[in-house]
Structures
1.
Amino acid sequence: MVDAMLPRASRVLDAGCGTGRVGAELAARGHQVTGVDADAELILAAGADHPGQRWIAADLVDLDLSSHGDPAPFDAAVVAGNVMLFVAEATEEQVLRRVAAHLRPDGFAVVGFAAGRGYELPDFDRHAAAAGLATEQRFATWDLRPWRSDSPFSVSVLRR
C-alpha cells in the first residue's frame, strides 16, 4: 500500500520498526528507509536480518533524527504493527508530533492499529489533528478494505 503511494527512491521513516520487516520490504522496492524502534535488541535484529538499511534505537516520543545524522525530511512514515498501542500511555500525541516533524511539507504517515485495546480512534483523531496531521483516508485493513465504525482495525492515511 505505502509503496503504491510513493515515487521510487522516496525517503520513508519506519517508526516503531521492530525487526525491520516492513522497512526491508520498502527498501527492496527501491525506497530509502530509516527504521526507528525504542527496543535496542529489535534494532540489532533488524540490522542483522536486513543489512544496508539504517536502523536506529530511539524512542518515538522524543525522536530527533538530526541528532543521529539524518536531518532530511521524509516523504512518508509508516507506523504499523500496533505501534500506537505500545507507546507509553499519554504520549500518543507527542509521538504523532515527532513523526509529523520528520515529514516534508505534504508528506504523509500511514498508521495502523487494532480497536478496543485501550487507544480508540476518537482519541487518535484528536491527537493526529493536534500534531498537525489531517486524516485523508481510513481503511479497515492494509489491503484497503473499507473502514466502518465496527471495524476491528484501522489504517489511517494522515497528511502533513
Note: The chain has six helices and seven strands.
2.
Amino acid sequence: MESEGDRLLTIVSALANPHRLRIIGALTVQGRTYVSKLAREIGISRPLLHLHLRKLEEAGLVSSRLELSSDGKALNFFEVTAFDIDLTPHSIAAVAGTLNLPASTSTD
C-alpha cells in the first residue's frame, strides 16, 4: 500500500513536466477527449502523449476509457479526475515521515 508521502511524491513528480501540465490544462478546458485529438491540440506525437498520460493516470490525475466510435474504431478517451492538492510546508511535514526511502547508496 502506498503511503501518504509516497502518494504526494507520485503526484508532484507527475506534475513536474510542462507537457503533463499542458495535458491537464487542455483536458480541464476541453473536457473528455480522445488521444489523437489531444495529441494534435497539444502538438506532440501520440506515442509521447501516451507516455505522459500513463504517468498522469498512475498518479490518479486522469482516467481513461476505451470506447468504440460509430464507425467501429476504438478510441481511448481521457479526462481529468477531480483532485485538490494541499501543498504547504505543514502538509509536507505531515507526510514526510511516511516516505518509503530507497536504501542509501552513500559511500561514507
Note: The longest helix spans residues 18-30.
